[in-house]
Amino acid sequence: MTATRQQIPFEGQTDKGSNRMCGAAALSMVYRSLVPSRAAHALDEHPERRGRDGTRRTRGDGAPGGSERRRGPRRVSDVTQSDIWPLVSRKGPSGQLSCATHLMVKDALSRGFAAVAIQAAHPLQTLIACRENGIRTILNHRLKLDGPAGHYTVFLGIDGEGVTVHDPYYGADHRISHGELSELWQPRYPSSEIVGNMLIGIADQPPPLDACPACKVPIPREVPCPKCAKPVPLAPAALLGCVGSDCMRRTWSYVCCPSCDFTWSFASTAPEAAPGEGDGLWNLGPLFAELDRMKAHVLSIPAAAARPDVQQQLASIDANREKLKLAEKEEMARQNEHTRRSKEAGAKARQEEADLRKAQEAATKPAPPIDGGALGDALLKDLGIVT
Ligand SMILES: [Zn+2]
Ligand SMILES: [Zn+2]
Q1: Which position among 119, 121, 204, 227 has the lowest Cβ density within 10 Å, counted as fewest Cβ atoms?
Q2: Spacing, Cα 181 to ligand 1 middle (Å)
């Protein structure tokens, strides 16, 4: 079962004591696993000097740019988790530094990889898609069943019993059963550091996917973040499956902005293929035009036009033409009704998701402070001491 698992070198987090560098260790593992891909693409490892299409841009001196200097060692193969850590960590509510998912995506993008963080709608299906498409996947779940602390692991493989991950804390080839993973992957605690079912997909030069193969909805290369307006790249696109609202291939509920950490949902629609008056659903126009030409030709021959059997044939053709038009109209109405119902179901599902998310957010908000004075007043009122 593990035969198809991804080949990724293991790396433990170097801060076992504070236990916060898991995200940096996970990224380091992923980067090192992608070094051969970099080499195969014969690219130098200077994303800053590469064009959007991956071709080299020439810049005379070859001196490291400012961002290169900030990022320490220049080659991805030389980057260590200690180099990554300051770039992907930020202070949490407790004042302690920990890794942030959006900063991890930002780091991968800055090194020239394709990276996107999503909240999976169907987590296990998403993991299978990642494995099948060779997408490196970092999972963000809780470290322990009985605690709110967030943790990052590198997904390796999935089988009937569970998943295998490289866990920077627990070790290489760590097994997690499906039941345990689905529990660890939920926030559960009001103070939980995770959102739930969140994962980061990373790839080097993933094949572009211009449209969903099933519903033909185009998948844009990037979308603007509704909050900060910066572009959010949507690659590797195979991780998203589709950006249509009701499509079976769509794997995700929310996408995360690497610039500002905003998570939101969106849906695109297929380009309108509204049939014009003339061509209709079955494009009968050219057929009817040919029939008209034939009829005119027959009627232009007096000997033929006068014959009762020919007249009967022509009348029969006219009757069938009307039947065909009617059937086409019925089929169009049926398809419109189907589209309307699909849209309704999609809207309902999105509403349910939004409600659930609101409830989750409300549950993770701290309760308002207790107002002793107001409680006292209420008690006195209840007892009838004051009115
Ligand atoms: Zn689709
Ligand atoms: Zn943003």
Answers
A1: 227
A2: 27
Please tell me the distance between residue 118's alpha carbon and the centre of ligand 2 in angstroms. Answer: 14
What digits encode the pLDDT tens for the residues 182-207? 999 999 998 888 999 999 999 998 98
Asked if residue 51 and residue 135 are part of one domain, the reply reads: yes
pLDDT digits (tens, 9 = 90+) for 128-159: 999 999 999 999 999 999 999 999 999 999 99
Nearest-ligand number for the alpha carbon of 230? 2
Are 59 and 76 found together in one domain?
A: yes
CA–CA dist 2, 164 (Å, integer): 8
pTM of this structure: 0.65
Ligand nearest to the CA of 248: 1
Beta strands of 228-342 (E only): which ranges?
231-233, 252-256, 263-264
**254 - beta bridge partners?**
119
Report how far ligand 1's centroid is from the alpha carbon of 251 (Å): 10
Q: How far apart are CA 363 and CA 195, in angstroms?
A: 12
